[in-house]
Fold this sequence. Notes:
One of its GO terms (molecular function) is ATP binding. The protein is an alpha/beta fold.
Amino acid sequence: SWQLSDFAEASIQKIRQQVGSKRVICGLSGGVDSSVVAAMLYKAIGPQLTCILIDNGLLRKNEQSLVIDEFTNHFKTDLHVVNAEDKFLASLAGISEPQEKRRRIGHDFIECFKTEANEIEDAHFLAQGTLYPDVIESGADPDGPAATIKLHHNVGGLPDELGFELIEPLRDLFKDEVRRLGLELGLPESLVWRHPFPGPGLAVRCLGEVTKDKLVVLRAADAIVIEEIEAAGLYRDTSQTFAVLLPVQSVGVMGDARTYDNAIAVRSVNTDDFMTADWSRLPYDLLARISTRIINEVQGVNRVCYDISSKPPATIEWE
Ligand code: XMP
């Protein structure tokens, strides 16, 4: 679409003017918005861009390597990967209350980002993937009902205290425009059409206390869900699809032996705006394959459930 390529060209020119010879840092999450921002900055100022990926230990299978591959091999950015799994898991130890989990993850994220950003001596600008809906939402009543449902955290929400001048090249765009812009900038379809993933990552899908062992189970189950929905050609027909590890054990039977193992819930929703959502009517055969594979391949799981709740009254994430 010619309009979007004009927009991209104009934004790139604007960024060059604004930045001059200074350095820009950009947090990467593996998601669409931060990737599009980084790709745009890279086109505009190339070697003056430094990207930061905080691996909080709560990422999906292969997520770190996907980001590294895209932003060092394809876009040859100066990418700093911070392996902070131990720090995040230590903060989360013993914590099962969802808001407190979110609070700690948000806090650790800012701390890690700040530490890394401060090492980049000449950093002057911070690029963020703020979208038009974020701009509108933050103008809304901050104490309104929506604000109190879940504490939101994402890479685009770093506080002013970091002291950088902001660059927000997606401020005028809606999500579908950001996706088209991503394709225009040369990002692969697999990244551009990726389902959204919350800032607190797998922690809000590992119900109750988060441990390394539970994350291993959840990550393996989630990868199977995604593989199967892609194999069925239905990934793009759903808005968000993932696995949740429930904080419950149930009885099963394996061969002659009784098992007492974990349960995985599969969540898949269709939505236009993520404010309301309906559960996806996935084919039974697909659900059957997902269930069989998870139970056979993921050690410690003997039961799979499908979440048939709409939003409202349920939310998309379980925490
Ligand atoms: P809920 O669970 O509130 O989620 O129905 C609505 C959408 O928001 C995503 N989500 C988040 N995204 N930081 C994010 O960037 C967060 O803290 C967060 N919490 C939920 C969720 O995945 C869904 O797409």
